[in-house]
Write a structure and sequence with these properties.
Layout (H helix, E strand, L loop, with lengths): L3 E4 L2 E4 H26 L8 E7 L6 E2 L14 E7 L4 H13 L5 E4 L1 H6 L1 H9 L3 E4 L13 H19 L8 E2 L8 H9 L3 E3 L3 E2 L8 H15 L2 E6 L3 H16 L3 E7 L36 E8 L11 H10 L25 E5 L23 H10 L8 H18 L7 H6 L4 H15 L2
Helix pairs in contact: 2-8, 4-5, 5-6, 7-8, 10-13, 11-13
This protein binds zinc ion.
Length: 451
């Protein structure tokens, strides 16, 4: 099947996409070579391998550290970004280091810095780098600001940087939230303004009090772990100035290639890409991840509605479960009702209530997502084992001297083994543990905890 999608102003067939990307990459690579040869003082420089033109509105949130999408880079491709400038003392050195290697980067500028140093903004624009924004005053807890303040920060940053470039200047719609301190309101406002929020793929911790060698090592190690991606650095830090030459040198030695990202314009349409290329890189099975599976962004169709299910449809408290201990019979007394779970009174719901139809994307399962399920022994569930423990007469009751210790031990073990069955006063008095049963329950719960 031939599926079509829009990429910027260019309509591309999926089947032809890879070829188109290859041809375009080749073409841009060839186009870049003479430019590099003409402008680059060093023939052995790292250089900029290609320019990636992107449509900000099509991909409003990028950077795998926080979002599902990131730049559609090939293996070994790196995008350099610098935040918080311009600060002449260090930013100008960064510009020189990049120029010596003919590398183009993206600068996320702070409005107040641009106001104080408009010449610095013009310098990096004239050097061919991408000018982006990073709020007006770089608040450190952006996500906790009121929406009015947050909007003023975003708008102020854009206005100050644009003003620094002079009348009629156009800056990129790329925007990075200070401290990556996102919230839904900020992202929504950015989307409304046509901004693209850039998180990052990896950091080098260059804002922390670490050595420049550490910055270099972190940048290279984290890049090696991902194989490609956006690197976030700061052009206002002396340790970044010190680390950057060796980072670029090692990028070259490691066979990495620099990609320069620019926004699409009517004259410069977006580079054709496959939607899959924007997806966050699937994590290898061998890499431990500290993140839980992400909660999907629930999107609802606008008009369609379905009748709301009755809460009683999902009422779990099946009478058969309650009858089970009684069915065992044979004169064994019924256990007292467990203190948990308690009876829950279900709220009444209007039978004619309706809920919006969820979008089909809600049910999509991403490639690479694996769900580990705990296999429970259905033939002998935990509830039954607990019931078996409680039904068994306590032999220790006949030996008063040891009874106290036995009950105390049982109480502790049973709390660890089955937190859902609180040891009631009556249970402690009437019953004791069968040690092998308790051990089995403990083993079961340990297995459950390790998944
Ligand atoms: Zn910053």
């Amino acid at each position: 099947m031939r599926t079509e999608f829009m990429a910027g102003n260019v309509r591309v067939g999926v089947r032809a996409t890879h070829l188109a990307v290859l041809m375009l990459g080749l073409a841009s690579g060839l186009a870049a070579l003479p430019a590099m040869a003409a402008n680059c003082p060093r023939p052995d420089a790292l250089g900029t391998s290609r320019t990636l033109v992107i449509d900000a509105k099509e991909h409003p949130l990028i950077g795998s550290m926080q979002y599902r999408e990131t730049l559609p880079l090939n293996d070994g491709e790196v995008v350099l970004t610098f935040d918080d400038g311009p600060l002449p003392k260090y930013s100008y050195q960064i510009l020189e280091i990049l120029a010596a290697q003919c590398v183009k980067a993206t600068f996320f500028l702070v409005g107040n810095q641009a106001k104080a140093n408009p010449e610095g903004v013009r310098k990096l624009r004239d050097a061919g780098h991408t000018v982006a924004t990073h709020t007006q005053s770089h608040p450190y807890a952006m996500s906790r600001l009121s929406m009015d303040r947050a909007k003023a920060e975003i708008d102020g940053g854009i206005a100050s940087v644009t003003a620094a470039l002079g009348e009629g200047a156009v800056i990129s719609p790329f925007f990075r939230i200070p401290g990556l301190s996102r919230n839904d309101g900020i992202e929504q406002y950015a989307r409304e303004k046509g901004l693209q929020v850039w998180s990052t793929d990896f950091l080098a911790d260059d804002w922390r009090s670490v050595s420049s060698k550490r910055v270099h090592d972190l940048a290279m190690q984290r890049l090696a772990a991902k194989g490609k991606g956006i690197l976030l650095l700061h052009d206002i830090q002396p340790r970044t100035v010190a680390a950057l030459p060796k980072i670029l040198q090692d990028l070259k030695a490691g066979g990495y290639r620099i990609v320069h990202v620019v926004p699409a314009t009517p004259d410069n349409p977006a580079t054709p890409t496959d939607p899959q290329q924007w997806r966050e890189y699937p994590t290898s099975e061998l890499v431990a991840t500290s993140r839980w599976p992400k909660v999907p962004g629930f999107a609802f169709a606008q008009h369609e509605l379905l009748p709301a299910p009755l809460l009683t449809d999902s009422y779990w408290n099946d009478a058969r479960l309650l009858d089970r201990p009684q069915a065992r019979g044979r004169g064994v007394p019924m256990p007292r009702p467990a203190p948990w779970p308690r009876e829950v009174l279900l709220a009444s719901i209007e039978p004619d209530s309706a809920l919006p139809v969820p979008a089909t994307s809600v049910f999509e399962v991403e490639e690479g997502v694996r769900v580990a399920m705990l296999g429970v022994n259905a033939a002998r569930p935990v509830e039954r084992r607990v019931a078996a423990v409680e039904e068994k007469p306590e032999p220790a009751a006949k030996r008063p001297g040891k009874r106290g210790a036995a009950v105390a031990g049982a109480r502790g073990r049973r709390v660890a083994a089955a937190p859902q069955a609180k040891p009631g006063r009556a249970a402690a008095k009437r019953t004791g543990p069968d040690k092998s049963n308790v051990r089995r329950i403990n083993r079961h719960n340990q297995q459950a905890a390790s998944i």
